[in-house]
Amino acid sequence: MSEFRRDPILREWVIIAPERARRPSDFPQPDLPSNGALCPFCEGNESFTPPEIAAIRRPGSAPDGPGWQVRVVPNRFPALRVERELVARPYGLFDVTSGVGAHEVIIETPEHVRSLATLPEQHVRAVVRMYYDRIQDLSQDSRLKHVVVFKNVGAAAGASLYHSHSQLIGLPIVPPRVEAELRGAEAYHKQRGRCVYCDIVYEELDRDERVVLDLPQIVAVCPYASRFPFEVWLLPKQHICRFQQSSDVLLEELATALKLVLLKLDLVLEQPAFNFVLHTSPYGGGDLPYYHWHLEIMPRLVGVAGFEFGSGVHINPAAPETAAAFLRDADVEGAFNGNGHSHTGWGYSQRAGLSPRTRTSA
To answer: Is it the case that residue 19 has pLDDT exceeding 70?
Structure first.
């Protein structure tokens, strides 16, 4: 049975989830396309997954059968379970909380493809809308304080299945990364009276050194202090602290920006493994003048080794200004065939000596 345990020194929570050890792919093999006929996420194989929670379907199609565009199901090997009662208790000097939460899989397409970048823009909009709907729906569970939407692509990024999908975990805590962002953003606001994320948007657009994509409502930038090579953030230009406060127009533009940036990364880096994570403010607490939702995309071109784990400081061998220039100049128009494979690759990762096995410290 999973549970939250809190480190008494750093005061950070971890999830101990022994049930996850039953997953068949805890130790990912090289990222090779699996046989679609055996894939539990392909259309026609709905019986291989738990019953669906939500879906975008053709009118008249039955739940847990063919006819869907985007489908959400419980994770078969959840880190947390929504059915459990929320119980907090001491364990000597330690804090323990029962492993209550939601762990869902968003199956992004009935087709056996690897990435969102290969899907039509309208389809990506449906996926983004599903993120919105699930975050909004889970806000009704009073036990949950925060929801993390994330995507892993490629074995080096922790993916265990080839078929394009993302995941959502609803938590009864605010995770350490978000807490740290909230503290830093609040301190900045108290000192300067402005949202730090809004200032980042203004500064990046003004300097135009690290801008990858500039749309009417969304800007994509390689952040000034990028932790990873070719890390990209998508930020709304308008101040919005919660993802579920976004307008339909903003959600549509986010889908456009997400597809374009993923296409650029695929072209420049020759289809890298990557993670992306949606950062939004916790449930409750009203509107926050100092926090700003954003989506972080992190290609997995270098490894995290002893120095990073021991110090918490990342070493990034690719300057964000250089990365932004490569991505900004990448012309994705007509560069990909129907399967999402580039006809011509820029080969940056090979020229820079970067690969998933590269380590930034010995």
So the answer is: no
